[in-house]
Specification:
64 strands; 5-stranded antiparallel sheet
Amino acid sequence: MYGIILLIALSWSMPQDTILPSGGSRFNSTALEYDTIPDSMNMQFMGNWPYGPALHVYVVKNIAFLAAGGVVYILNVSDPYHPVKMSEIKTMGVAARLFYDRGFLYIAGGDIGLDIWNVMNLLSPYEVARYKVDDYAKDVVVEGNYAYLLGDSTLHIIDVSVPVAPVEVGSYYITHYRDFIANRVFVSGNYAYISTYFRLIVLDITNPEEPSEISAFTPVSAWDNKGVFVQDTFAYVADFNSLHILDISDPAHINEVGRYSLPNYNLRDVWVSGIYAYVIAPESLLIIDVSSPSQPRMVMSVHVPIFANSLFLNGNFVFIAANGAGLQVFNISDIRNSEKIETYSAYPTFDRARGIFLQGNYAYVADGYAGLVILDVSDITNPVLVGQYDTPGYAMRVYVSGNYAYVADSYGGLRIIDVSDVTYPREVGHYQTPGYARDVIVVDSIAYVIDSESGLLIFNVSDPSNPVEISSCDIPGETNRLSVYQYCGRNFVFVSTDSGIRQIDISDIHNPRDLGFCYLAGGPTYGLISTTNYNCSRWVIYAAAYDRYALHFHTALVRIEELHPQIWRASDFDRTLDLTIHGGAVVVSDRYAGIIAYRGSGATQEFVIIGYYNTPGYAYSLVATGLYRLYILVADGYGGVQIYRYATENVSENTNTGDGNEFDLNFMSPMQFDIRFAVPSGEMVKLQLFDVSGREVWSGNFGPGVHRVQQNVPSGVYLLKLTGGASSIMRKLLVIKN
């Protein structure tokens, strides 16, 4: 009933799923809203602003569920051109795909697994269960009493006959080397069709407890299969270059009967209705006549803004989730007349959070195609949107100085925005750089900009309405980040490039001088920060580089003194994109691995990991703040802005892989822990705390409802036991106080 969780030494105890009431009754959803932690040590989730790009849309009659980052908008689309928001769902993960069934919305939630919401009252949806799997949940289909949840490498078959108590009954692990990674699942009758990187796998799911592979087919020249759709005796598979039409009349013996080649279109999804296949590429809706499966032919191609991710056909309308362009709607009532295909940008969304800057109570976010986003973070647990300015390009980084925000806007160049009134940001000046503006720092009315074509550009911005280029310094290769610092009366810029770090003397800003290059073999350097000691005897750069030629990405944290690099810490994480130093800790954002905190240890200053958190999106950038507690704000790509606190107690727990019926643990201060849990209606439970000798330290009895218990405990090992009816669970805790 309750599941079991083991807590391991040397990490921070994080909240987990609250015990859910039976029968679908309402419970304290606020307590559950941010509970499941995918993977963490010594980092506590505090709050988030999870708004991001449109990833998926699911339409039921006149209601559209639009997944955008970690948020699902519930829209009334009675008038498809003018959707009206009824409510929204905030998840803790990234809402990758959606499926609606009999009043419940099933969300493939990335690292948090399967997230189930009761949406019978569209104005007031509430969460009823989560089911964590050891995989990244990227697609979900519900058929009958079962949810088919697809991860990167496993199809999980979960009994959802009682949605508040999901139970996994079967699974299929994808092992063939040519499958590489699973992408989509389609269920038809007794078969599940899974598109993987190179193949289409067919599983017999007649017995959900024992799914079995009956065939696996590699379409001609297939590469990066994404969408799969089954209609009658044909399966339609969209890959990077083609739409493949497969005869599945005998699922054990699949044959490719037709193919429509679209070289380099990077097809993303497919939907088939009648004689037409609707296929989306990043900037196109393609309509293909498949009435003759062996000879498919193009009917028309319609432009889609930005990047189309998925589509859903409902009557005469095609709904497309188009990344930062939000929800796009196409009227296809007159399908043979391309001039009458009406296109509407129906509902805007935000985009991927790429850069972040903290000043006072406000976080300024470079939000891709959504431009500059301003959040009030005075309540760190509840960031609130207060302002936005849609820049013309793609906002990558932001720096705030005084009343102005300076945005490196990619092909939009440098944009200067007046933020004296955060509720009404307005552009006052700009400079169109020759290439893509990637980073910006402002010091004493001088703006330093990294541009993809011109290297380092230096501007006088004493008059923000009229930035004047002072000088430039060409930098070979691809530039990524910059750092400005002063060393013994001289000014310098460090620039991270595709192979190392370049140092530029800017003491005379009219004549910047390239002083040297620190080569870091393997691949690009991204994160970059510089420091110097007080007696001017040496300076140190902290940087992160990764080896793009390795079989797996290999990231190294590098300490460089006087341009002599030393590898401090190497890891097999994906790619470190940013880093900062705060309170003696070096904290890095690592694209897929999230945030990682390091600290020097011993005379050799060897770096050791002291904390990490696997964020739900792509950890592009971060800032740190706090005098007595370290708070980390992360620009997390699809995950919006995520906020964490580095903990002072070392307690860890593994992730929930049970039935979702867990209680929370949340350690609020070094002198106590706060046990939070809920008891179903009609139940009584006993909670007991034992020390390592088996002596009962504390106990209490609790009836139905949500409860919190605070107890002061000294350092040591403890056992926590929860007993209810015939079921009981026990958890091991290790508390270490500094």
